[in-house]
Design brief:
Number of strands: 35
Radius of gyration: 26 Å
Helix content: under 10%
Structural class: mainly beta
Oligomer: single chain
Strand order of the largest sheet: 22-23-19-28-26-25
Distance between the termini: 45 Å
Shape: globular
Largest sheet: 6 strands, mixed
Strand content: over 45%
Number of helices: 0
Low-confidence stretches: 58-65, 97-114
């Protein structure tokens, strides 16, 4: 037995009831809001410092913050009346207009009006009903580097973009560090150490993405680095057989532009929005791309791109329009061989390349080892039972519209690399 309110759920109460028995005066503790108290290391403290909480399931915080508290001069803070759940806690500083030209402990934060600037310090925290949770933000560390600067788009401040930084080459356990731009396109983040970092860009209020960029962070305590986002725009104009049109909005993020360099995919950009049969891509940089998509459901039928499509984009031709013919998906059936007994959740993935993680479809394998894929693009595909398989472990197949291919896929152990 448990009670559920907006503040969370009570601890389950186990009851033993016999047939015909009547229990009376059962007491159940109704959940009440939790709270968060803690402290911040002196390395972070500056005027206007505050702790902000955002629910983990909400990806965008652009439309306002619900829970926050100021940090006093001794580094202490308290946030009351919190619903139970998973949160992301981060440090922000409120920059007032009269402080526009002051240099703070973290960042040169210039603004013509009051704004909130993330400092890049983040921690996950779980809030429980009926009790207080403790949280401590530790100091910078001897090897940390303060990275700050501006993000520009078409020469204007890129407002409301989230930056995600991580060290490369990526290793399991490496932290991802996030910050965001203010009204002037400025960002400020504290990195744990110098080295090469990859930076991902995502606009928070409409989830637009821009190509990732790589930077070399120098040692020395702080470094200023500006970023310029490409301003190119590309439109896909989709045509379906027999004049069909979607009976519901298409999902823009099902369409991918894969930047090709030296015969390999170097970067991926997903569609940003859909207008009818048009799929729009923003922040496209010059280069040659391969177009890919997951299968699309249109009036009960499944469609894919009719043939492999390559797109050469030039910033001078923006916006560039690319006609794309859609077709019914190809079919494939087969069997997994060599799988040991007792393997759970066995599946087969269809990849666009012999290497990389860009798969287009996934099929669950039946208990007798057979699998079926019904919505595949025509052309070359590679099959494997593991997401992180090597080129040697993938089975190549060439799909032809109207022809049901049959193939055997050997079971592959998961790689730990």
């Amino acid at each position: 037995l448990l009670a559920s309110t907006e503040s969370g759920q009570s601890e389950p109460l186990e009851l033993n009831v016999s047939r015909g028995e009547q229990l009376k005066d059962v007491e159940l503790l109704i959940p009440t809001p939790g709270s968060l108290t803690g402290s911040v290391h002196a390395d972070w403290w500056q005027p206007g410092l505050q702790v902000v909480l955002d629910p983990k399931e909400r990806e965008s915080t652009w439309h306002g913050r619900e829970w926050s508290a100021p940090v006093d001069s001794e580094g202490r803070f308290t946030i009351e009346a919190l619903p139970a759940g998973e949160y992301q806690a981060q440090l922000e500083v409120r920059i007032a207009a009269q402080e526009a030209n002051q240099r703070h402990a973290v960042g040169s934060l210039l603004s013509t009006s009051a704004s909130h600037q993330s400092l890049g310090a983040q921690q996950p925290v779980t809030i429980h009903s009926n009790r207080a949770t403790q949280l401590f933000f530790s100091g910078h560390g001897a090897d940390s580097v303060h990275l700050f600067g501006r993000v520009l788009e078409s020469g204007e401040p890129a407002t409301g973009w989230k930056l995600t930084l991580y060290r490369v080459p990526y290793q399991r356990g490496n932290p991802q560090i996030e910050t965001s731009t203010d009204e002037q396109g400025r960002y400020s983040v504290m990195l744990p150490q110098d080295g090469r970092y990859s930076v991902r860009f995502r606009r928070q209020h409409d989830r637009r993405q821009a190509p990732s960029q790589s930077i070399q962070v120098r040692p020395g305590g702080e470094m200023e680095q500006d970023f310029t986002l490409p301003a190119g725009r590309l439109e896909l104009h989709l045509t379906f057989p027999d004049g069909q049109s979607p009976n519901e909005p298409l999902a823009a993020n099902q369409f991918h532009l894969l930047l090709q360099q030296d015969g390999r995919t170097r970067r991926e950009l997903r569609g940003s929005s859909v207008e009818g049969n048009r799929v729009l891509f923003y922040n496209v940089q010059a280069g040659t791309y391969r177009l890919a998509t997951r299968s699309l459901q249109v009036r009960g039928a499944t469609y894919v791109i009719a043939s492999p499509t390559s797109v050469t984009f030039s910033a001078d031709s923006s916006p560039q329009i690319v006609p794309v013919q859609m077709a019914r998906g190809c079919k494939l059936q087969g069997r997994v061989t060599g799988a040991p007994e007792g393997v759970d959740s066995l599946h087969v993935l269809a990849f666009l390349e012999a290497t990389g993680y860009d798969y287009v479809e996934i099929a669950w394998v039946r208990s007798d080892g057979e699998f079926y894929l019904n919505s595949l693009p025509a052309g070359d595909l590679w099959l494997s039972t593991q997401f992180n398989s090597s080129a040697e472990d993938r089975v190549h197949v060439q799909l032809i519209p109207g022809v049901v291919q049959e193939v055997q896929v050997p079971y592959t152990e998961s790689s730990q690399d």
